[in-house]
Amino acid sequence: MCVSPFFVFAVRISVEKIQRGLEMMYCEEILLRDGRKCILRNGEEKDGEAALECFKLAHEETDFLLSYPDENRLDSDAEKKFLQEKKESADEIEIIAEVGGKIAGMAGFEKVGSAFKVRQRATLGICIAREYWRLGIGSALVRACVQCAKKAGYKQLELDVVAENTAALRLYERTGFVEFGRNPRGFCSRLSGWQELIYMRLELG
């Protein structure tokens, strides 16, 4: 096990990254902008119910995500299975952000495919409950996923973001993601009609 100190928001923290067997393990403690501590760690089976509730809440609170809460077909058992599979995976991960024992958000990546031509690419997804916006959790989760994607051997990390979601767009740009295309009819919102999607990518090596 290796523990190394570094700074996040000018605050010294300790970060622990563990590669055990084929599993990709991640654990980091950060200090949020409001002074609270946040733990970033692998989601696991025991987090299933709380993670699902966070997922549903995040999708209720913004119109910038892929689906609506009533479209979600996962139950807590399916979520538990999903998290455990990601914890045991060597090339996919789901990282949760925990504040005061409560799941505030989560992010992860999945491989585009297993075929030779695309197996070097992965897609990133993230959601955070509104209560925890603008505290630095999003930046920390994206950074964690980038580090893990590199460790898993991916050469490119990809995502899409609604063009009107300027806060997320700035976050991705700060991390190094660059735009490579747009779809003016990427999403069809129940509230606002067509939403333009921006496609972004980050070269990892």
Question: What brief labels describe this structure?
Answer:
single chain, 205 residues, alpha+beta, ten-stranded mixed beta sheet, 4 helices, disordered N terminus
Question: What topology does this entry show?
Answer:
Layout: E1 2-8, E2 11-20, E3 23-31, E4 37-42, H1 48-61, H2 76-87, E5 93-99, E6 102-111, E7 121-128, H3 137-151, E8 156-162, H4 166-175, E9 178-189, E10 193-203
Parallel strand pairs: 7-8
Antiparallel strand pairs: 1-2, 2-3, 3-4, 4-5, 5-6, 6-7, 8-10, 9-10
Helix pairs in contact: 1-2, 3-4
Write up this protein.
This protein is of the alpha+beta class. Helix content is 25%, strand content 42%. The protein contains four helices and ten strands, in the order ββββααβββαβαββ. It has a ten-stranded mixed beta sheet with strand order 1-2-3-4-5-6-7-8-10-9, with helices on both faces. A hairpin with a 2-residue loop joins strand 5 and strand 6 (102-111). Helix 1 (48-61) packs across helix 2 (76-87) and helix 3 packs across helix 4. 29% of the residues are buried. Mean pLDDT is 91; it is low at 1-21.
